[in-house]
Write a structure and sequence with these properties.
By secondary structure, this protein is an alpha+beta fold. The protein has one domain: Conserved Hypothetical Protein Mth637, Chain: A (2-Layer Sandwich), CATH 3.30.1200. Helices cover 19% and strands 38% of the residues. It has 1 helix and 5 strands. It has a 5-stranded mixed sheet with strand order 2-3-1-5-4, with helices on one face.
């Protein structure tokens, strides 16, 4: 299953908003440097789906605000 996330780094709080079944909007406190924002998004997805972080892998969008994650 692929999950598409639009990310807003440097936000005031960490929050995940569901848009539809496969699209989400993530607000993360982490800066978009050294993959910190990507790791924060994975943490939010892990908490939302109640799955370990290892179940999520970044497929595309490593340096973009629009990212695709694979749920395995």
């Amino acid at each position: 299953m692929k999950i598409f996330v639009t990310v807003k780094p440097n936000a005031k709080e960490n929050r995940l908003e569901k848009i539809d079944e496969t699209h989400f909007k993530a607000l993360v406190k982490a800066p978009p440097k050294e993959g910190k924002a990507n790791q924060a998004v994975i943490q939010l997805l892990s908490e939302y789906f109640k799955l370990p972080k290892l179940c999520f892998s970044l497929v595309s969008g490593e340096t973009s605000r629009t990212k695709a994650f694979k749920l395995s």
